[in-house]
């Protein structure tokens, strides 16, 4: 899709996570205020404390951060099990999942609420940004995403069915601050204020994870000099991207003040974050289809269980969500203005400032080299098939011509943009990447 579109999509993903963190900050402060009303005037300090603790975790990083997340994740899974199983004896779907108003059961109302369900799965795609944090990411990252998706499907459906079967019921659930309260108040015999406290860990758990994903994306862009290179510097003691983490925290705190002080800003930011997210999700699916079709012969350690058809279905779902977000939501007009303005500013920034300073990082150089190797191998493979196989006919011939043309244009666009990249902000024009080292080659393609 080219460097410019990649830069814009990367920034969209950063903004998406920043808005999620801002939303969680404000929600966390509201949960604290329910238990301690005297804290109402000092809500921003709860954001500072939560993000300060996250900063300390992310600065140390490594085993401390991941062990903390492991303990927190196990605690939250147990909490969900206790909520669902403990609420089962007194759950009454007939009493609490009351019939909805006719205006909410139409196809229009369904399509309007369609994007809301994506909140259950926010963050799964962010696991891609943790390749530098794990061993053997080609194996562990995709399998972790599949396991995470399966876990979210089971827990999401269980929580939904349990929540609508407990007080306050389906009618009031949408405006409830803590959906677990209905089960906790009956199962544990707690007051509403005390039950709200049990939802705080789940609210906080999102913050450090999203901050780390933001920091990794920003650090990668800084290494390519798309944004100030200083953000790429890591902690001399712990080796963590502490500068990028600090900038991520400042960005999310700034958005938290916007949500806190501007009426209905939370709705606008929610719709805006989902809009940015759908762009990132669709681009990932398109990238998967492109790589799957263009580099069929390259060895892969993981194969998607759904393949290209699954990616096409995902694109359809995300595209439908995007249409609903930009046209049917209550605050669509204001969100659309912010959305278009943001994309315009990012595009202008890239072409005016970043494009002349952009360089190819070491990781990108290796990736691009393997892409070129894959292109060469795949081209030879396709040529052999065309010479010895039966050529496509009829509809297949038309489809082959169209898709080949699209991929050719995409490849040419990437090559043209890469030739404008410079080795240094004030240096001469350089080639897209330096000559690969022998050690960069996989063992099966090294020269004898």
UniProtKB/TrEMBL annotation:
Keywords: Cell membrane, Membrane, Transmembrane, Transmembrane helix. One of its GO terms (cellular component) is plasma membrane. Residues 411-422 have a biased composition (Polar residues). GO terms for biological process: transmembrane transport. Its main location: membrane. It is a multi-pass membrane protein. Pfam families: AA_permease (PF00324). It is found in: Cell membrane. The chain crosses the membrane at residues 64-85, 146-164, 198-219, 240-262, 268-291, 303-327, 333-352. Residues 411-448 are annotated as: Disordered. Residues 4-325 form the Amino acid permease/ SLC12A domain. This is Amino acid permease/ SLC12A domain-containing protein. The lineage of its organism: Eukaryota, Sar, Stramenopiles, Oomycota, Saprolegniomycetes.
């Amino acid at each position: 899709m080219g460097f410019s579109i990649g830069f814009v999509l990367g920034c969209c993903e950063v903004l998406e996570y920043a808005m999620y963190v801002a939303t969680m900050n404000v929600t966390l402060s509201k949960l604290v205020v329910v238990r301690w009303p005297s804290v109402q005037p000092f809500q921003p300090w709860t954001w500072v404390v939560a993000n300060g603790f996250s900063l300390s975790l992310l600065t140390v990083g490594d085993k401390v951060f991941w062990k903390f997340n492991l303990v927190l994740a196990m605690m939250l899974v147990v909490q969900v099990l206790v909520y669902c199983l403990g609420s089962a004896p007194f759950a009454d779907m007939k009493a609490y999942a009351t019939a909805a108003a006719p205006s909410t059961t139409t196809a229009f109302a369904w399509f309007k609420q369609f994007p809301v369900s994506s909140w259950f799965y926010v963050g799964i795609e962010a696991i891609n940004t943790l390749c530098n944090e794990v061993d053997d990411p080609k194996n562990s990252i995709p399998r972790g995403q599949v396991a995470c998706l399966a876990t979210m499907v089971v827990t999401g459906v269980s929580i939904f069915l349990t929540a609508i079967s407990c007080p306050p019921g389906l009618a009031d659930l949408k405006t409830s601050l803590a959906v677990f309260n209905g089960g906790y108040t009956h199962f544990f015999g707690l007051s509403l204020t005390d039950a709200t406290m049990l939802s705080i860990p789940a609210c906080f758990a999102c913050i450090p994870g999203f901050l780390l994903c933001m920091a990794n994306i920003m650090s990668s862009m800084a290494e390519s000099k798309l944004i100030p290179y200083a953000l790429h510097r890591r902690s001399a003691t712990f080796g963590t991207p502490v500068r990028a983490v600090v900038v991520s925290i400042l960005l999310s705190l700034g958005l938290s003040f916007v949500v806190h002080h501007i009426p209905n800003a939370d709705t606008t930011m929610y719709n805006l974050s989902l809009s940015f997210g759908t762009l990132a999700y669709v681009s990932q699916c398109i990238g998967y289809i492109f790589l799957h079709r263009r580099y069929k012969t390259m060895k892969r350690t993981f194969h998607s269980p759904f393949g290209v058809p699954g990616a096409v279905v995902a694109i359809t779902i995300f595209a439908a969500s995007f249409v609903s977000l930009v046209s049917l939501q209550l605050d669509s007009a204001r969100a659309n203005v912010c959305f278009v303005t943001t994309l315009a500013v990012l595009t202008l920034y890239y072409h005016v400032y970043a494009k002349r300073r952009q360089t190819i990082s070491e990781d990108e150089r290796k990736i691009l080299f393997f892409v070129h190797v894959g292109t060469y191998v795949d081209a030879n493979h396709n040529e052999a098939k065309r010479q010895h196989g039966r050529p496509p006919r009829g509809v297949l011939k038309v489809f082959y011509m169209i898709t080949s043309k699209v991929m050719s244009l995409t490849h040419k666009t990437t090559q043209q943009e890469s030739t404008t990249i410079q080795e240094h902000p004030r240096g001469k024009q350089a080639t897209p990447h330096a000559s690969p080292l022998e050690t960069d080659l996989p063992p099966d393609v090294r020269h004898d």
